[in-house]
Amino acid sequence: MAFDIDMIKKVYANMTERVDAARDIVGKPLTLSEKILYSHLWDGKPTTAFTRGKDYVDFAPDRVACQDATAQMALLQFMQAGKPKVAVPTTVHCDHLIQAKDGAAADLKNANSTSSEVFNFLESVSNKYGIGFWKPGAGIIHQVVLENYAFPGGMMIGTDSHTVNAGGLGMVAIGVGGADAVDVMAGMAWELKFPKLIGVKLTGKLSGWTAPKDVILKVAEILTVKGGTGAIVEYFGPGATAMSCTGKGTICNMGAEIGATTSTFGYDESMERYLRATDREDVADAANKIKDYLTADAEVYANPEQYFDQVIEINLSELGPLLNGPFTPDLSTPVGKEMTEKATSNEWPLQVEWGLIGSCTNSSYEDLSRASSIAQQAIDKGLKMKAELGINPGSEQVRYTAERDGILGIFENLDAKIFTNACGPCIGQWARYSDPKNAPKNSIVHSFNRNFAKRADGNPNTHAFVASPELTAAIAVAGRLDFNPLTDKLINENGEEVMFDEPTGWELPPKGFEVKDNGYLEPVEDGSGVIINVNPDSERLELLEPFTPIGNSIKGAKLLIKAYGKCTTDHISMAGPWLRFRGHLDNIANNTLIGAVNAFNKKTNFVKNQLTGDYAGVPDTQREYKKAGILSVVVGDHNYGEGSSREHAAMQPRHLGVAAVIVKSFARIHETNLKKQGMLGLTFVNEADYDLIQEDDTFNFLDLNEFAPDKQLNVEVVHSDGSKDIISLNHTYNQAQIEWYNEGSALNLIKKQNA
Ligand code: F3S
């Protein structure tokens, strides 16, 4: 099941008919995004024109992909749905649970021993339910999907925010929580608010030091981490078609960092080349037959302002290399002088200690080859590395081919560590320090996508900057954050001044891709006899119990925490060492909101227990409320829950007894996850009401018995002095989602319907 050509041909046959019907109904030329959306309606041929940013629409995705950290909970949930097999092609990829420490061989061996229970569980559930399984070391989910499964015009969902990477091959690919994936795996429709559309016109051409990464770093600067919320970003123009397919993947990948639903590009020759190079001649042939359906109608790109909700234009010929960070991916600084000034005034360490190349964002053959051209120059010009260098190839196919072609050897000549084909430092799986909390202030540069505090190494004092692989390599050689490879000279071992030439590389391996064992396991045809064992004493896996409905009378709920500022899914359910408990709800719940900053004392994991007046950690305090049978409320700021798609960030508070999360605004995936788990995700009608919330507040919901679509809810907030405020709250629940709430969770409803 490398890929299913019959399924793809069926999608293409539907597409021609459905796109033509959609064009008639919408009454104007269509963007690529609309073509893909309208050809994947759950109800088949389009009969209605949907309003962008408003209508909830049921879709039928072609594929599902899960990574090992999120797959545990997704599969535990799927097991509860009572189905013999997954309804759509699904794959599981073991990439998150492998720590980077001593290098690939030792690290993989270690992961296979420490996480064998989880890997065995995922393998046997995959085998039983007809799911393709990619073993630890096979590669990072999104690189493997791009190489094997993504196809132009397709729609997929995945239990990871960077599923959007497959937009590089012309898909609409969207990161979802495990609960959404379970719906699709169980043969149900998948619901999404019809997205708005942002068009990005790329003129000019990338050259020299400027890479696809710089395009998305620039877009992140323009749109910020919130700017893409609720929208698909569609790239087009001569700059887009001139770029490699994997470069397009990089751009789509980091669309997650601007909050975009997804990003995509129209089918072009770079995609065809990539399909043929990755052994998918028949997909390329099938795509070529319906080319016009796999890109927007010509009129759209000629007059984009008329068809997109927002249009941005970037001239790639004028774009230079950028460094984004620290602590947020939208803070953009051009290389060189401006960085010197910013770093000095903000006290960012100018000395760089590590350069890391890899992650799903930038670990293609092209990325490694361009970065290696810089590494080779360092060797040729007698330069010594000033920082350490670590490499995570994106897949075994990329690794094997890069090794064969001498690319990895170049890095090794510079004493770089070649880590496993896995996420590694990108997800905090990096054994950099024995005591990260007390580790020193320092700067690192990486080609990953996320750079939130503590993300890579658990050290709150690590300033992480995001850059292209080639710039990361150059900065690692120079050891300085403000190194500008276009103008700056370095002193080599002979005391001579030398400069880097522009990076060079190959879009695709000149001798073709090669791999001995790609790490894929095909499931058995009939999995009914496969037994799945979960040890009841396991600390890593726990079978799920259905949630009890919260009900429509929430009175006397206590404020658990009023989160101040950024509260991402990393703050709500921290990654790093906690990844090991992803399959055990009660154990992982001990990290609930421990990264969120308490608005009343600006401390993390230090909140007032209203029953005792004492201050303690968030999970401990919440467990006290639960023991006393008291529900609680979490209050938050803007874009609450941005970051990843992990439904743990919703399941954990739910498991511990949080009834409602009230914020100024939500990140889309997290809001949906709260709904799926049968909780209330609500927003202040008047954002300033956030300021009314005090530390000892009690919440009485006044009209939850009238919970209905498009109808505000009201909550009475009782302060410690007895005074009260009535606060109005918005919600985005439609009738079906209110049913999830009423049943206790979406899964409870699926089970009821399957009974
Ligand atoms: Fe893995 Fe980092 Fe991508 S965690 S899936 S490499 S964003």
Automatic annotation (TrEMBL):
Give the enzyme class: lyase
Pathway entry: Carbohydrate metabolism; tricarboxylic acid cycle; isocitrate from oxaloacetate: step 2/2
Domain (Aconitase A/isopropylmalate dehydratase small subunit swivel): give its ranges: 558-686
Q: Is Iron one of the keywords UniProt gives this record?
A: yes
Looking at the keywords, is Secreted present? no
Superkingdom of source: Bacteria
Matching PANTHER family, A to Z? Answer: ACONITATE HYDRATASE B (PTHR43160), ACONITATE HYDRATASE, MITOCHONDRIAL (PTHR43160:SF3)
Q: Which family does it belong to?
A: Belongs to the aconitase/IPM isomerase family.
- Name-wise, this protein is Aconitate hydratase A
Q: Per the UniProt entry, what species is this protein from, by scientific name?
A: Winogradskyella litorisediminis
Q: From which lineage does this chain's organism come?
A: Bacteria, Pseudomonadati, Bacteroidota, Flavobacteriia, Flavobacteriales
